[in-house]
Write a structure and sequence with these properties.
Layout lengths: L1 E9 L10 H4 L5 E13 L4 E12 L4 E11 L2
Antiparallel strand pairs: 1-2, 2-3, 3-4
């Protein structure tokens, strides 16, 4: 299991500035929070389960939750 937390703060002299998406890495003006949870579990030699969760809050926007799960069988 692994857990990561990231906080970035983006400030500008004026709100009229246009900041390209590539330059800001998708962050918006204000405080940006990202958190991630990764979980892997092996049920034996041929079965692996993986679960990932991402959460983010960009500026004054709403919190966005994303989860993924996967089970793999090896033959």
């Amino acid at each position: 299991m692994r857990f990561e937390v990231e906080r970035n703060e983006l400030t500008a002299n004026t709100v009229a500035n246009y900041l390209p998406f590539e330059l800001t890495a998708g962050n918006v003006l204000g405080k940006n929070y990202l958190w991630r949870l990764f979980f892997d579990y092996r049920f034996g030699t041929n079965l692996l389960a993986t679960a990932n969760y991402d959460g983010r809050k960009l500026g004054s926007g709403k919190i966005i939750h994303t989860a993924r799960g996967e089970v793999r069988a090896f033959f």
